[in-house]
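__Protein archive entry__

___
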Amino acid sequence: MKESLILEIQDKISINDMEILKVLLKDLYAADIAELIDELSKDEIKVLIPIIPVDKLAYSLAELDFDDKHTILNLLAPKELKIILDNMYADDIADLLGPLSIGKSKELLKLMKKEDAEQIQNLLGYDEDSAGGIMTTEYIAIKEGKTVRDALNIIRDIAREAEMIYYIYVVSQTKELMGVLSMRELITASPEARIKDLIQKKVINVRLDLDQEEVARIISKYDLLAVPVVNHKKQLLGIITVDDIIDVIEEEATEDIYKMAATTEVDFDDENNTIVKASLKRSPWLIVLLFASILSGSVIDVFSDLLNTVVALALFMPTLAGTGGNAGTQSLAIVVRGLATGDLNTKDLREHLFNEVKVGSLVATICGLIIGLVALVWQGNYMLGVVVGLAMFCNILSATFVGTTTPFILNYLGIDPAVAAGPFITTVIDASGLFIYFSLARLFLPYLT
């Protein structure tokens, strides 16, 4: 949304020009309204809410963060809230009520029809990161005994309430998922044809308790617009649409990025997030890494006599440690990404490690030759060039090995591989790289002095 439009709307709010505001809001999409609300103060939101069309406000509410949602809920009267909830999809309502207090959730549920409220309560009972937690119960399901004519009549009656009508799910009398067909297949079929004769019986589906990240992989792999969610009896309970999966992918990617940086998200716009709280969120990992970095210092201390003898060794310590850490991070990023997308799994360890070692060996040879020549020209000591070049080769090779194997091991143990990335593994590789460097230096010490 253009910043100029936001500024114009804020200006009209300040002078209470409702007619112009209505014109400015008329052509905005729900996502634009959500973005606008995020930029406004509470007082400005209070002025704007009454003139936002209810249907757009309902869709916008699903896009807002918790604080903005809470602000709007407090501004609306019960009658307006009822209209808002009636215009929202079940999964969005569940997301809205989830973070609220039990009392506030019950208050909002009382505004809904009893049947709808029960569906929302069921959704709230599932793990928010599972298939059940992100599914919607607003879908189109037809009994297998119906004809195409019957099915079209049913769809005309309920299509407005469904979040997705591209797929028509076919169920038995006991709600067991029997098959699926697309809307295209339905409207091009003979009106008298039986639904059960048209369906694709092999339906890709997910279980209620499946992790949302795995659901995202399935939808991505099979290029689906939606996937049905079933229980252990294969009864259809809901569907997960691609728009919700896009949110999941963004959420999981954001989570992995924070893990790779050894930190957590901090919203400074939240008045409850003080600088002290933000610091406390970041401190634990930094303290762990602080003690881990002492390992590098311990390695240097062990070889301090060697450094006193050949001072020139200190000149190449940062280069060796940094390059090794970078090489390890490259290998690690490839594996973490592969495991996250499903392109790699534990059984691929041997083959992938072999390929990474081959690549690492070539890179290590190139970098080793370059740094060895630099050491020779700079210090005029050919043996120092040999030691530094050989240390660089071994350092990159070992970093490649560690960066490749660590995520596989963590994944096998059921730990998110992303926690291996970033500062932690770099710190470990730094220490091992320095140990290799000084061990080689000590081995060739008679030729260095």
Notes: The mean pLDDT is 86.
